[in-house]
Amino acid sequence: MLERIHLAIVREVDRRGSLTAAAEVLCLTQSALSHTVKKMEQMLGTAVWRREGRNLRLTQAGEYLLSVANRVLPQLEHAQARLAQYAQGERGTLRIGMECHPCYQWLLKVVSPYLAQWPDVDVDVKQKFQFGGIGALFVYDIDILVTPDPLHRAGLRFEPVFDYEQVLVVQRGHALTRGTHVEPAQLAGEVLITYPVDIDRLDVYRQFLVPAGVRPKRHKTIETTDIMVQMVASGRGVAALPRWLVQEYADKMSIEPVRLGRDGIAKQIFVGMREADADTDYLAAFVALARHSARYAAA
């Protein structure tokens, strides 16, 4: 029978590059690990690795076994950690994944009352995922995913929590503020500043520039919202951000929001989770508070 130790061996050999290094991580002797591998391959009736010089390369069966290990082991580890927390009288940790770069100010408005209501739950926020946000949910790296672009998959649930408008943010007094909105062609001479996200996931490209066949004069990426807005305020470029966020910064910086197109770009923020966890009380409480925070985003 395939056991957890077999999956752990395959994963650690892949991570560490050798049986010797994997044995050390798994607290096994080299001979014990080699014996277990031999018994596993006899049980499976096929080789898991083949030797190429000093290197081990996974066979087709080994590649499949590694994919199973990468799916199953994180779930077992998550379950073990969660049960240990229950045994110690703790709720655990709510791990929030963010696919919405400008949403940190909004998230703070949710996390603060959440921590007050749930003193036995810790909160951790993650932004970079090895397999992307959806993959991070499936492999139990995170419990909640905050995203404006949900990818609906079996086993996941996405709840809309608030609506917002994506707008162009420009320096106060910029020529683009003279009309009620901007057209794509008006950005052909501008430096467009965005977060370091693939262009096909940026609304200003996907829903505004690309359909019109327009490209900005130059595309520049900046990781932090504060620096991005300061660059815009100093006339170094324009950016696309949620209207609520622009209005918050406009109180202290020389910037203005301008509608993108006559009808604007309407967006929603979603909170995603695994369907199996949807009834967990402290997860449901986070979603409820996120919905309540919609008045902050709309203000």
Automatic annotation (TrEMBL):
Q: Where, per UniProt, does this protein localize?
A: Cytoplasm
One GO cellular-component annotation of the UniProt record comes to: cytoplasm
The residues covered by the HTH lysR-type domain are 1-59
The record, for Pfam families, names:
HTH_1 (PF00126), LysR_substrate (PF03466)
Cite the InterPro entries for this sequence: LysR_HTH_N, LysR_subst-bd, MetR_PBP2, WH-like_DNA-bd_sf, WH_DNA-bd_sf
The UniProt entry's GO biological process terms, in alphabetical order, are: methionine biosynthetic process
Query: Keywords on this record?
Result: Activator, Amino-acid biosynthesis, Cytoplasm, DNA-binding, Methionine biosynthesis, Repressor, Transcription, Transcription regulation
Q: Does the keyword Repressor apply?
A: yes
Q: Which GO terms describe its molecular function?
A: DNA-binding transcription factor activity; transcription cis-regulatory region binding
Instruction: Tell me which family the UniProt entry assigns to this protein.
Output: Belongs to the LysR transcriptional regulatory family.
Protein name per UniProt: HTH-type transcriptional regulator MetR
Q: Which organism is it from?
A: Mycetohabitans endofungorum
